[in-house]
Amino acid sequence: CHHKHLCCSSPYVPQSHLRYTPHPAYATFCRPKENWWQYTQGRRYASTPQKFYLTPPQVNSILKANEYSFKVPEFDGKNVSSVLGFDSNQLPANAPIEDRRSAATCLQTRGMLLGVFDGHAGCACSQAVSERLFYYIAVSLLPHETLLEIENAVESGRALLPILQWHKHPNDYFSKEASKLYFNSLRTYWQELIDLNTGESADIDVKEALINAFKRLDNDISLEAQVGDPNSFLNYLVLRVAFSGATACVAHVDGVDLHVANTGDSRAMLGVQEEDGSWSAVTLSNDHNAQNERELERLKLEHPKNEAKSVVKQDRLLGLLMPFRAFGDVKFKWSIDLQKRVIESGPDQLNDNEYTKFIPPNYYTPPYLTAEPEVTYHRLRPQDKFLVLATDGLWETMHRQDVVRIVGEYL
After folding, report:
1. What CATH number does residue 210 fall under?
2. What's the domain count of the chain?
């Protein structure tokens, strides 16, 4: 196979997924001035904007701060994977940055996982999903006997089989405080998978595994927030994760088999080199937003006819949320009674937050939002050279053909 290089990029430009903003908005303007870049940033309520001048090397330093490249190691001079490596980058639009990226090799099954996660209303949900989703996918792909082996190791206190080998930028991190909670939820999931499977050997459906992993993680995020935690820090963390949100676009590459699972409006684009050497872009995901007629129809069918005009207003879910599928965002999933009960019994920081107390308008028949992904399959061909995964910020500022051409020329 010649389709050996996979490019995973996650740039982000200023674009709020949520119309409702409880804090002052910021406006950013960038313009070239002679050999300098003029950077102007002013708060909505500031009387005069502040101006900073950046040299080209300083601009390059900002652009390169989150760059990360990984090359898959060869064995005996041969590359055992259909992926040669990947490059990724993030460009902050918020402080702290709200998007995340993840890459890992599956150790107990074949294949590599790569994903981008675009957060909104904070970074808590995108951080949690970037840490946890690949474990849920890996567990969903494991055969029954391996799940039993892992469970027996936990029971007897023996060392666990490693499931994933992570490939992370030094700035990427895991939440140590929540690791035990996350592990216990994951263990409950694999215990249920063991009980569901009688031990009969059967081929695992990758599409089904991806869908189950996405839905189960979102369910666990919701449940953890409802149950709470005696530890005040953890209790506030699980609530912040649940009340913020994140979209996810994940690729699973195993030999010539490429699956893309997408929830939200990030996008996967395949770079194809034609016989004449030119580049063409093949879209491997669908945006879940108001520009997708099938998504609009799905939403309307899931709610009463008298909500047809209110379920999507001004191209946003209930007039507020741009993506129609996302993790977290329990404000669009829980009943009003459940939201009030959790907020009232939660910490003061949650109760004092105007966003968490805000009930969306025309909120009659929740849930309005789902984390269920749409899964696309593509059998890789020699002319398929690379895959680009990116949040909506890239696709809103660059045409897909330009993205593929630029990456193709870089490679």
Report:
1. 3.60.40.10
2. 1
